[in-house]
Amino acid sequence: MRKLTLLVTFAVLFNLGAEAQRDTLRVVFYNVLKFPGSTGDRADSMRAIFDYLKPDIICLTELNDEAGADLILSKALNHTNNSLYARAPYLDGFDTETIVMYNTLKLSLAVADSISTAGSTAVGSSRYIGYTRLYYRDPFLSVHRDTQYVDVIGMHLTAANDVGPIESRRIQARMLKEWLDVRPHVKYILAGGDLNVYTSNEPGYQILLDTGVMKLYDPIARPGDWNNNALFADTHTQSTHVRAFNGGATGGMDDRFDFILVSDSVLRNGSPLKYINGSYTSVGNTGLLFNDSLTHPPVSNIVPWEVLSALYHVSDHLPVYAEFEVIQRIIVSFRDEAHDQIQILISPNPATDYVHISDQRMAKTDATFTLSDLQGRVLQTYSKPAGQQQWVMDVSGIPSGVYVLHTFSEGQTSALRLIKR
To answer: For residue 44, what pLDDT is reported?
Structure first.
């Protein structure tokens, strides 16, 4: 049997309409107020928040210690499934830390690192900037060995609106951009967290957006003087409280401190990872709470009261999220070295109850078939003995949707799309 090789034009179908399969990633950035602090039971409130948001990527800032990260993972994210979410390694540094957690059905960890901002403050050390590279668990990954990377950058820049902290934020932003300048492979960037900036004219914010090889963009394009400005009430993320709460900020909703910024690659039409217009959200903010607490009427009629109450009790910040479309790579054909088309036929396709599979070239060999969903979960496995040219697969018991039929024979692999009605 001649060795199978993939066509160069095989199936990375970014622009072929119905052939390309799409998935959505919801990405959340959240300052969790020195968690766990003296109130580790806030993880129970986080459970309501994350059950509502159903995030795929969560970048948390202001974690006190690794025990707090594990508490959030076990009690807030994995309370019904011990393995649904995983986290990046906890990188201990100065003051509070940043960490990324992710949905393992869709994503896996490639790299976790920290970006030093040493020397950026006049008063001792400063918090590092976290870098986490995830990759999308494309259902065809075992075949084409290629997938989409997501570069998550978590920031908690120096706080306060004085000359010294403003200069510190400028230096921290410059250090990040210098780090990115020598890493051109870091391309599909979702950068955010608690930036502690008061206006879009602040030097540090301008550096993030307008300098270096890799410029960043605000998906909602709302520049201006955010601090204590009712014109930007719908963008504000701090404070959820008017009065003192567990050491957090007070004064009500009057600052846009929490951001998600993205690279140009994530904004382009046809990008394999693309921001979904209109998805950027400050969770629970109605735009009618200027200088007031999150739970003061009129409260959101979109976010359930249980979740609003949890947001109020967990932190003085609101989480922000945005959604991103991933375009999966689809294998449509294989050829042998002489470029003769291999005739693996499945019919009917779309199917309702049974699928007939045939291939003359595999008739003389043993073969194994697996049927997987688009998250890579194997639903059924079949074995075909040598000498059998046709066989039947029962798909009556699986839900309607798009699936992947993998074939394995003599060390070679193929993948075909199957639609179940």
So the answer is: 92
The two tokens of residue 245 are: 């709460």
**For the chain, how big is the Rg over CA atoms in Å?**
25
pLDDT tens digits for range 373-399: 877 788 888 787 777 767 788 888 898
Sign of dihedral through CA atoms 176, 178, 179, 183?
Answer: positive
Q: What is the phi/psi pair of residue 381, to 5°?
A: -135, 135
Measured CA to CA, the distance from residue 102 to residue 112 in angstroms comes to: 13
48: amino acid identity, one letter: A
- Burial classification of residue 247, based on how many CB atoms lie within 10 Å of its CB (0-12 exposed, 13-18 middle, 19 or more buried): exposed
Q: Using the predicted structure, report yes or no on whether residue 53 has a pLDDT greater than 50.
A: yes
Interval 201-228: pLDDT, tens: 999 999 999 998 999 999 999 999 999 9
| Token pair for 58 | 């969560």
Local structure of 138: helix, strand or coil:
coil
Q: Measured between alpha carbons, how far is 387 from 389 in angstroms, rounded to an integer? A: 6
Domain boundaries, the chain: 4-12+331-420, 22-327
- Under CATH, to which class is 4-12+331-420 assigned? mainly beta
Question: Given this structure, which CATH class describes domain 22-327?
Answer: alpha beta
Kindly state the DSSP code that residue 64 receives in the 8-state scheme.
-
Residue 184, preceding peptide bond in cis (omega within 30° of 0)? no
**What residues contact residue 388 under an 8 Å CB cut-off, 6+ apart?**
363
